[in-house]
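ugh ok so i messed up the first submission bc i forgot one of the chains. this is the corrected input, ALL of the components this time, i swear. 619 residues overall. if the numbers dont match what u have on ur side tell me asap before i send this to the collaborators (the ones from the other lab, u know who)
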Amino acid sequence: MSETQTTADVDSEPAETSDQQSFLSVFARTVRNDRLALVGTIGLGITIFVAVFGPFVLPHDPTATNLDQMNQAPSFVHPFGTDRYGRDILARVALGARTSLIVAFVGVAVAAGVGVTLGAIAGYYEGLLGEGIMRFADTIFSFPALLLALAMVAIMGQNWYNVIIAVGVVYWPIFARITRGSVLSVKDEEFVQAARSIGESDFRIIGSEILPNITAPIIVQGTISMAVAILLESALSFLGLGVPPPDPSWGRMLADSRQFMTHAPWWTIAPGLAIMFTVLNLNFVGDALRDALDPHQGDEMEATR
Amino acid sequence: MKRYVVKRIAQYVPVMFGVTLIAFLLINVAGGDPVRTMLGTEASEEQVQMIREDLGLDQPLYVRYFDWLGDVLSGDLGTSIMYGQPVSDLIVQTLPVTFWLAGGALLVSIFIGIPAGIVSATRRNTKFDSGATIAAYSGIAIPNFFLGILLILVFAEYLRVLPASGFVSPLADPIQGIRHLILPWIALGTAQAAIVMRYMRSSLLEVMDQQYVEVARSKGLVPALIQNKHSIMNALIPTVTIIGINLGYLLGGSIVIEEIFALPGFGRLALNGVLNRDFLILQGVLLVTAFLFTTVNFVVDILYTYLDPRIRYE
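and heres the new structure output, hopefully the right one now
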């Protein structure tokens, strides 16, 4: 039962460091050893499959209204029931999975790109530049993520790009902190000094000596951030400032269903469970990987705050 | 220690400065022309120009920023277009509601999270521990608005034991006040309780593995005593900082929870400002939340060094 892996459990395993093993092999081992990681991987696989193929495979058109079939309870024909326009809720939840996964994935990729770059610079060039970057990160971090994202979408305009940019802006500081911490810890290692002594440029040292050594913690943080980003995207949609209609999103389905909640609760419950399912699985995978790669990483992140 | 405090102040001041800069630039640059937004597309170019000069918007950006910063520092956040009232008044009126909400949610998170974390850690790998772990994962994964809606559905619509919406000040009517806040407290506090529980569990496990606990054990101290006196106090210290960080989630979460439960608080004010493009409200709300968050965390960090002198910051 390694899902509740602790410091003691990990210390008793053979000592390995993350740069001696490929990420995929760690992933494979984690899934083999950790039941929650296995559950999470399968669950994520299902979500991605539904998002990619669901709209082609499912029998009902997510936008087809059918006024004879309004607010129908779950049945064999409509496993999740229908909404007030008679649209099939399963088909809409499947299409909503696309929205959530795309916004979360691309948004977190933007956050990681910006955060890793700025964090690497801040770690490599300590002093005024590094301090300035980290204070900028602290500044962004001091706004509640939902409030800042809402403000950005409201001000810059409600569309896919701005929702994704808002996710990227809100979450880059965490990547910058992790990257800076990792760069600081490997900067004075021999292999970096060796590269410096043979006259390699700073850019090359950061790009080809330092960054490859810190991809694992970045991927772990990316997984965990995607879970948070899905919650953020659905909250934005719930409040009316997510991806604009007609593209369905889980958050807006929940908001639309609220006034019908007493006589058509399935309309509320289906997208809510879809969000929970996705976030749960991302966290299972992310936490298991973090424990497998470095059991102390989480604590360090807090201590450097 | 003194050096750390000085260093921490040297971080706090630029961050607060950055907060004002972002709040200013978001509204004045990212938002396009504020006068145009205010007057709509029908206004003529002359009208726009007139108002712009009237408001001093024809000045260079940095002049406007420092003018505005002077106003903010003297407590003037401008007047809301939507409410026709000073933004600072609106914030002062709505903050108490949010303090009731966030304060109660914080207590929920502490009184569920810390005991559950302690029991989980001391009975590691038991059924309780697995159950609490799954519950914590679910608590983190459930969106607070979904939980809020489910709570309304069950307790207000089906069972009809608690009100679905509205705010009564617990100072005016304690019973009704608390009845109206129970569901919002649970909806907002559950995820935080889960985070506090996970954090308490892992920091207690770490402390329990450390040497001085071993020493206490080898001296023949009763295990329960070791747990109480040595481990728990030390494990609580890092948990305090997570509670400071949680304040940000609570303030952000209050936007959603106040909307669902129709609480006339600060989060609802923020949402109304956003949805109605009343940018001065939005600006005021951004400033106040960031100020609260940064200040609370600053204070927590300073307290932390007094609570735990072992901490050495880089």
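quick check: The CA atoms of residues 10 and 123 of chain A lie 29 Å apart. that seems consistent at least. Chain A touches chain B through 56 residues (CB under 8 Å).
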